[in-house]
Design a protein that fits this description.
Elements: H1 2-27, H2 31-46, H3 54-78, H4 80-83, H5 101-122, H6 125-146, H7 153-157, H8 159-162, H9 164-173, H10 178-201, H11 203-209, H12 214-218, H13 220-243, H14 249-271, H15 285-313
């Protein structure tokens, strides 16, 4: 009886440990970051001319998700030392020591290779090439070269997150066109104000880890100005598909409203009560709101483009 009771008492703990480890392996893929990546890739696929079998389309989206997750995993492997120094990232599996670095790296490399090969077999090798390029760019250009060397890391490195609409489009068509390039430019211009809003209220973490994010190197006041500057560039870029006749005015109306909304939040970041160094006197409340709105902005913009495309294809516009 006592042996049975002991086995019964330890079984829930074993199950709990197993689930905890599975969650860690999943967390290595940066699932929250992956969500917008997958969505933008899906929209690139939906608005592309032509047709792809739903099963193959689903495989393509899975490949984009796995490829993005693999890049995030390798990023965590390389940055485990600085992740351990930042409150925001200290509990990541490799930084916290719950997963061995060698195992994490092997996991990321395997998934990266699998996603590229499967994309090529399911759709076409041009799409696989773009997927491979996005992974390599994120790992070698952003993570290993730019991140620890320059405050422009997020500007140049933002290209890595802008590839998915191109990958989705090319998976359907096998070639590149103007609209996916515009979508690339939108995500590219969106990335700096999005991440700099985050870095304003996480600057102490970056300073502690020695990461030269813009607020650490140039100060909060300059970061606020740069957020406004990039948002001013982003707003007309969002309207470009309509102006070029590549999308209708359903999308255009959303692009205008979302662009104005982002400009409003950027202005609030610039004019929030600050001390002489530009540090917020209100706990960076405006920057936090701008960060949250930036997520809504990109998701809303791409969602509106997909809806606009469907309405036009259905003959309702």
């Amino acid at each position: 009886m006592s042996d049975l009771m002991r086995r019964g008492a330890t079984a829930p703990l074993a199950v709990s440990t197993d689930w905890s480890e599975l969650r860690d392996w999943f967390a290595l893929l940066k699932p929250r970051v992956m969500t917008l990546v997958v969505f933008s890739g899906l929209v690139g696929m939906l608005v592309a001319p032509g047709h792809i079998h739903p099963v193959l389309g689903s495989v393509a989206i899975l490949c984009i998700a796995v490829g993005a997750g693999a890049a995030g995993c390798i990023n965590m492997w390389y940055e485990r030392d600085i992740d351990a120094l930042m409150r925001r990232t200290a509990r990541r599996p490799m930084a916290a020591g719950r997963i061995e670095p060698e195992a994490g790296l092997a996991y990321g490399v395997f998934l990266a290779g699998l996603s590229v090969v499967l994309m090529g077999l399911a759709t076409n090798w041009m799409a696989a090439g773009w997927l491979l390029g996005s992974i390599l760019f994120y790992v070698f250009v952003y993570t290993m070269w730019l991140k620890r060397r320059t405050p422009q890391n997020i500007v140049i490195g933002g290209a890595a997150g802008a590839f998915p609409p191109i990958i989705g489009w090319v998976a359907v068509t096998g070639h590149l066109d103007v609209l996916p390039l515009i979508l690339f430019a939108i995500v590219f211009a969106w990335t700096p104000p999005h991440f700099w809003s985050l870095s304003l209220w996480a600057h102490e973490d970056y300073a502690r880890a020695g990461v030269p994010m813009l607020p650490v190197v140039s100060g909060a006041r300059e970061t606020r100005r740069q957020i406004v500057l990039y948002t001013v560039v982003l707003a007309p870029l969002g309207l470009l598909p309509t102006l070029l006749g590549l999308a209708g005015w359903v999308y255009g109306a959303y692009a205008i409203s979302l662009g104005i909304g982002f400009l409003f939040h950027a202005w609030r970041v610039l004019t929030e009560p600050q001390d002489a160094a530009g540090v917020s006197l209100r706990g960076d409340a405006a920057a936090r709101k701008a960060f949250r709105f930036s997520l809504l902005h990109l998701a809303g913009l791409f969602g509106a483009l997909a809806v606009d495309h469907w309405l036009r294809v259905a003959g309702l516009l």
